[in-house]
């Protein structure tokens, strides 16, 4: 095994970087492989193009004859881009993307063939994807699911395949993917926000949620990554002693991007340009070999698709550069893990960002309305938001003394805190003209000015306001953004509906003016949601105590956190807004709990295997060398060998102790796994894996990492942290 390690190291040392040449301006290739407006104009009839636009902007249905026109145009375009196949591209609940390719090619008899792609094939497909998780919705042997075209996300050509973004639903109508509930949530927030906007501007007809994600990742040489069975099978290292140098010098963060990584990024960015993914920034992150990439924000559904696509593309391009991309939230102990900040805002079809302070008191009142409603939505649904980002891998970050904590709170900065404090004192009932003038001039009117100061940032907050958007920072790097985006948009939609109801009551029943009513409702909201606001250090122990006093949840593990998804409140909320019915919500809960169990189970197996079959035998081998040495010393020096061989004999004993601990803990872990596996109830099973099986990983690791320090480097079979993290 150690030969594999040294072979891998040798391979990385002889790597030649793959150089990328860019001959054209990036803007000139942007979206070249996307069936976008420009391509559609060229390949579709006017009628077909209008029909697609009506589907995108008004949600209209596309009829079969038009669908045939569209598919023909799309096929011709795709073939011109070198496509030979097409696929419905979707995001099943595995979190990854799925595709099944079919050729355009079709024999027509007499030894002849044509390229064919009909409207039916564009609109709907049955992928026979019966093995995807469905949480019991879909009996694997009977009702099948189907994929249906989502015209709001444009088709694209990747490699030689035309990819058509689709939703994946069962024949009984339940969502089997991430996209369907997201689309429903976006629709809910659209209509709820438009209704509230009407208080301020009658012309608003549509509100879009925007998402700008920031993707963190590790880039490891592929030979080194492949030499570690834990990385190959679980995406993270289960063992490995910290290197002498980690991230303590902060010399990687925002430093010069290493050359090989740079070539990879350029290659990747080129592909992103062709695919219409508007990537904009790249930089080194805190940990060695950790990087980040972020695009310009887009409409949320498209942004989610682009992030899923990007993760695929990143892995594929990495192969060309002999890299492996690690998306896991915590691939290495002792250095920072990876996240995926979700920057979120709402904007109108009239071009206004509802979370950006405006130029007039009126537009600022609109801003404050959306700002305060979002805070209240988060306050009332903090547990659900926490559940939306729960996963076995993200547990390593949240609540594990690393960015951000498992407690959800909102950071808004000092100036906005002051604004809210002022608004909290607004008179109950009708406002006097003087008070209104004062509010407009001195409170609401002053917002734009103060927000220019952008230094007021708190990196420890899981949900922070950053000037014109909220940044949901607790999302995991591996996650599909659809999940948190579905929850966030749903809770905000619900909140806006409630807000409108309350304001209308004050206007209709109490005869208040609109502004007075808005101020009155906002005042009460500020009072009610104060507990979610926190400006201090989110990583501190003091905050844990304080949050507990405030009644905020602190669900540190996935099984605990996920429960919020099936609370009566959550089930009713999703159902009432038409995002998910109860069957769908419960199915998702089951799937996520099941996935949690499977992940920990796999890690347990891999760890047991490495510890027993790689680490212990190596320890025995080294111990034998030491024993031979001691015997030799005794032979030469007789009784005085005891002084001469003292260190060796201590080592022999230490090695034995660690081996014994490893062996007995692996046995204990295997037994705990067996017990857990025997449990029928998924909650009990997940609980066992979380609290009985997983803690033993640390114990095994502790002893193995100690052995790593004791044993001859030449013999050690697992590629070490310093090799994984510092080979560029
Ligand atoms: P950082 O948090 O690293 O300082 P930036 O300010 O560069 O990040 O922005 C990070 C992300 O936020 C980018 O993806 C950007 O497109 C996105 N973003 C910027 N403005 C908005 C907005 N109004 N709505 C949603 N996302 C936005
Ligand atoms: Mg950020």
Automatic annotation (TrEMBL):
Family, per entry: Belongs to the glutamine synthetase family.
Domain GS beta-grasp stretches: 84-173
Name the record gives this protein: Glutamine synthetase III
Residues annotated as domain GS catalytic: 178-615
InterPro entries: Gln-synt_C (IPR040577), Gln_synt_N (IPR008147), Gln_synth/guanido_kin_cat_dom (IPR014746), Gln_synth_cat_dom (IPR008146), Gln_synth_gly_rich_site (IPR027303), GS_Type-3 (IPR052725), GSIII_N (IPR022147)
SMART domains associated with the record: Gln-synt_C (SM01230)
Entries under Pfam families matching the protein: Gln-synt_C, Gln-synt_C-ter, GSIII_N
């Amino acid at each position: 095994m150690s030969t594999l390690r040294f072979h891998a190291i040798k391979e990385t040392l002889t790597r030649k970087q793959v150089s990328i040449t860019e001959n054209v301006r990036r803007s000139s290739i942007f979206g070249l492989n996307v069936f976008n407006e420009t391509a559609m104009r060229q390949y579709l009839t006017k009628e077909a193009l209008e029909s697609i636009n009506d589907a995108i902007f008004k949600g209209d249905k596309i009829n079969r004859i038009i669908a045939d026109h569209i598919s023909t145009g799309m096929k011709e375009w795709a073939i011109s881009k070198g496509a030979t196949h097409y696929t419905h591209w979707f995001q099943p609940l595995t979190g990854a993307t799925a595709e099944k390719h079919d050729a355009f090619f079709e024999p027509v008899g007499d030894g002849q063939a044509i390229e064919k792609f009909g409207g039916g094939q564009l609109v709907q497909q049955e992928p026979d994807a019966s093995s995807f998780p469905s949480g019991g919705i879909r009996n694997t042997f009977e009702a099948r699911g189907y994929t249906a075209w989502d015209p709001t996300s444009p088709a694209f050509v990747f490699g030689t395949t035309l990819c058509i973004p689709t939703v994946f639903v069962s024949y009984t109508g339940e969502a089997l993917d991430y996209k369907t509930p997201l689309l429903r949530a976006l629709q809910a927030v659209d209509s709820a926000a438009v209704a509230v906007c009407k208080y301020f501007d009658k012309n608003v007809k549509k509100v879009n949620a925007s998402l700008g994600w920031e993707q963190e990742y590790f880039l490891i040489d592929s030979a080194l990554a492949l030499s570690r069975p834990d990385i190959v099978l679980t995406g993270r290292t289960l063992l490995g002693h910290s290197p002498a140098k980690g991230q303590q010098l902060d010399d990687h963060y925002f430093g010069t991007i290493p050359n090989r990584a740079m070539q990879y990024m350029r290659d990747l960015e080129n592909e992103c340009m062709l695919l219409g993914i508007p990537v904009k920034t790249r930089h080194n992150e805190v940990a060695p070999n950790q990087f980040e990439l972020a695009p310009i924000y887009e409409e949320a559904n498209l942004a989610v698709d682009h992030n899923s696509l990007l993760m695929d593309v990143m892995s594929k391009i990495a192969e060309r550069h002999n890299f492996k991309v690690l998306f896991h939230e915590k691939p290495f102990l002792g250095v920072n893990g990876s996240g995926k900040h979700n920057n979120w805002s709402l904007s109108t079809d009239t071009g206004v960002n509802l979370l950006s302070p405006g130029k007039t008191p009126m537009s600022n009142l609109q801003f404050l309305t959306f700002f305060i409603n979002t805070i209240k939505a988060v306050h009332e649904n903090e547990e659900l938001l926490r559940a939306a980002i729960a996963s076995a891998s993200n547990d390593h970050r949240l609540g594990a003394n690393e960015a951000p904590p498992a407690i959800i709170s909102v950071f808004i900065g000092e100036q906005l805190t002051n604004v809210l404090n002022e608004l909290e004192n607004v008179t109950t009932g009708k406002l006097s003209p003087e008070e209104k003038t004062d509010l407009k001039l001195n409170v609401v009117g002053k917002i734009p000015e103060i927000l220019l100061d952008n230094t007021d940032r708190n990196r420890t907050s899981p949900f922070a306001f950053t000037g014109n958007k909220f940044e949901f920072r607790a999302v995991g790097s591996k996650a599909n953004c659809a999940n948190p985006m579905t929850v966030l948009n749903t809770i905000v939609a619900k909140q806006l509906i409630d807000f409108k109801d309350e304001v209308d009551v004050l206007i209709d029943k109490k005869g208040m003016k609109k502004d007075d009513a808005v101020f009155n409702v906002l005042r009460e909201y500020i009072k009610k949601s104060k507990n979610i606001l926190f400006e201090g250090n989110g990583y501190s122990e003091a905050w844990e105590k304080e949050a507990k006093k405030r009644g905020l949840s602190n669900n540190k593990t996935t099984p605990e956190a996920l429960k919020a998804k099936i609370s009566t409140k959550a089930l009713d909320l999703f159902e009432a807004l038409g995002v998910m019915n109860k069957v769908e919500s419960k199915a998702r809960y089951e799937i996520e709990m099941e996935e949690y169990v499977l992940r920990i189970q796999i890690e347990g197996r891999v760890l047991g295997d490495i510890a027993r079959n790689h680490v212990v035998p190596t320890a025995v081998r080294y111990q034998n060398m030491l024993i031979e040495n001691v015997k030799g010393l005794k032979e030469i020096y007789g009784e005085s060998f005891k002084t001469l061989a003292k260190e060796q004999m201590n080592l022999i004993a230490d090695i034995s102790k660690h081996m014994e601990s490893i062996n007995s803990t692996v046995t204990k872990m295997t037994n705990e796994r067996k017990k857990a596996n025997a449990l029928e109830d998924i909650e009990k099973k997940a609980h066992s894996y979380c609290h009985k099986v997983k803690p033993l990983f640390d114990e095994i690791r502790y002893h193995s990492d100690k052995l790593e320090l004791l044993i001859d480097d030449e013999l050690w079979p697992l590629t070490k942290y310093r090799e994984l993290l510092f080979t560029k």
